[in-house]
Amino acid sequence: MDRRTWLQHLSALGLLSLSSGWKLMDDETLLKRPILSASEWLPAVGLGTWQTFDVGSNAAERDPLKAVLKTLVEKGGSVVDSSPMYGESEKVVGDLCEELSINSKLFIATKVWTTGEQEGIAQMNRSFALLQRKTIDLMQIHNLVDWQTHLRTLRGWKEQGKVRYIGITHYTESAYNAMEQIMLREPLDFIQINYSLLSLKAQERLFPLAQEKKISVLVNQPFEEGALFHRVKGKVPPEWAEEFNCHSWGQFFLKFILSHPAVTCVIPGTSKPQHMLDNLSAGLGRLPSEKQREEMVKFINT
């Protein structure tokens, strides 16, 4: 059954309230993974804000996003990832979190995306203001832009406690060589990269290195910008997916990612509370075994 049908099914059974906060089954707890460079655990399903949170100030645009954030926190999530590249997303996240009084409950990750030391400092300080934070949990160098310059700044800020963790990001396999070299030479807490049933190269090189260097991994583009849903349109998940508590295609795609031990957290973006719930449900129950992972890859490729 597809995502919408699954949610309607849960509602009919009384397991999901479409009017009062998207109830999850009470006997399940959201999966957590450790930050490898520290003694801290993160919920394994978070929220990306690219495109989805780049909205104006009117209630019609913001109310669904407020419900998304509320659902994330109520169901045990905390990771929210943004960037100055994402238009108004940082401001929208900051505003809505303050309205909901949940800012202190979130693990806020954002990025620096400019060239030059002073330009980087100015942009990051603006992110602090927009997100209404005195401390950013994770500051990342977006797409490796002027990474040497910003890494020097971030090391100092981490020592001062202005940022808690630092990392680098990219979203294409063409950047893996550069990322690998940085990971080998520089102390990092996180990398953020693309990984999905259709993009597997990260598990060949970067994941083993991340585990060796104790670098945690955030995963972006888990749905391949919708390409995975398009591929399975009109189809239902295989019956054997029930063996790892999978009830929708969204969960199928996310559980594959989470079943790799190097993945700390996956950050799909959404503007719909019901999809936020579905995404979080991928972090509940069993995950695919190695054999099942192989079957998932074969299935999606046929």
Automatic annotation (TrEMBL):
CDD domains on file: AKR_PA4992-like
Q: Where is the signal peptide?
A: none
Q: Which residues form a coiled coil?
A: none
NADP-dependent oxidoreductase domain sequence ranges:
45-290
Taxonomic superkingdom = Bacteria
Q: Which InterPro entries match?
A: AKR2_Oxidoreductase (IPR053135), NAD(P)_OxRdtase_dom_sf (IPR036812), NADP_OxRdtase_dom (IPR023210)
Q: Which PANTHER family match?
A: D-THREO-ALDOSE 1-DEHYDROGENASE, NADP-DEPENDENT OXIDOREDUCTASE DOMAIN-CONTAINING PROTEIN
Q: What is this protein called?
A: Aldo/keto reductase
